[in-house]
Specification:
heterodimer; A: 114 residues; mainly beta; five-stranded antiparallel beta sheet; 0% helix; globular; B: 115 residues; six-stranded mixed beta sheet; 10 strands
């Protein structure tokens, strides 16, 4: 049973527009969420995170929104740039518990067209 | 080095052979993780080491998989009697401390192909 779900395997967006990547989770014990970006033949790199005590965290063009009641988070990229084209992984963690690992979704491949 | 280092970067092996994958974490990082990503799939947790605590092996898919870590340094992931379904990129990551909401830093992965 997948605890972290990214239901859209791919997303295509025009340069300059907003990209919205979605993520749902089932485990109510998750209290820390992260987004990672992965280019081909490279390891994932950290992008942005959010604690469950917040509902929004912003870093430049990237904003993550968390809706705890819906167990849903989203990553907004605006404006989107061709260099943003990559696979984006949502990850969740039980920060306050004993679980020591991040649970990842399957990823969403974002393509930003010039 | 500055980042997580993995070796080999690419490995082609025959079905039934054993393979060892090595990970050098970032110096000073107490937590070390192994993940794998099979074609078209997400990142699958395998094992987690935190300091001197017993490792969390809950993600290892079978008893053919094992991993060791020497203190807070190098880790080796061993796959015995490899099968074609073991073909994947094996990603190692480290973080300064474990369950603290810290980000983890990934290596570039070891690409394993079992033929």
């Amino acid at each position: 049973d997948q605890q972290v779900k990214q239901n859209s395997p791919s997303l295509s967006v025009q340069e300059g527009r907003i990209s919205i990547l979605n993520c749902d989770y089932t485990n109510s014990m998750f209290d820390y969420f992260l987004w990672y970006k992965k280019y081909p033949a490279e390891g994932p790199t950290f992008l942005i995170s959010i604690s469950s005590i917040k509902d929004k965290n912003e870093d430049g063009r990237f904003t993550v929104f968390l809706n705890k009641s819906a167990k849903h988070l989203s990553l907004h990229i605006v404006p989107s740039q061709p260099g943003d084209s990559a696979v984006y992984f949502c990850a969740a963690e039980n920060y306050g518990g004993s679980q020591g690992n991040l649970i990842f979704g399957k990823g969403t491949k974002l393509s930003v067209k010039p | 080095g500055a980042g997580v280092s993995q070796s080999p970067s690419n490995k082609v092996t025959e079905k039934g052979k054993d393979v060892e994958l090595r990970c050098d974490p970032i110096s000073g990082h107490t937590a070390l993780y192994w993940y794998r990503q099979r074609l078209g799939q997400g990142l699958e947790f395998l094992i987690y080491f935190q300091g001197n605590s017993a490792p969390d092996k809950s993600g290892l898919p079978s008893d053919r998989f094992s991993a060791e870590r020497t203190g807070e340094s190098v880790s080796t992931l061993t796959i015995q009697r490899t099968q074609q379904e073991d073909s994947a990129v094996y990603l190692c990551a480290s973080s300064p401390i474990g369950t603290a909401g810290n980000t983890i830093y990934f290596g570039e992965g070891s690409w394993l192909t079992v033929v």
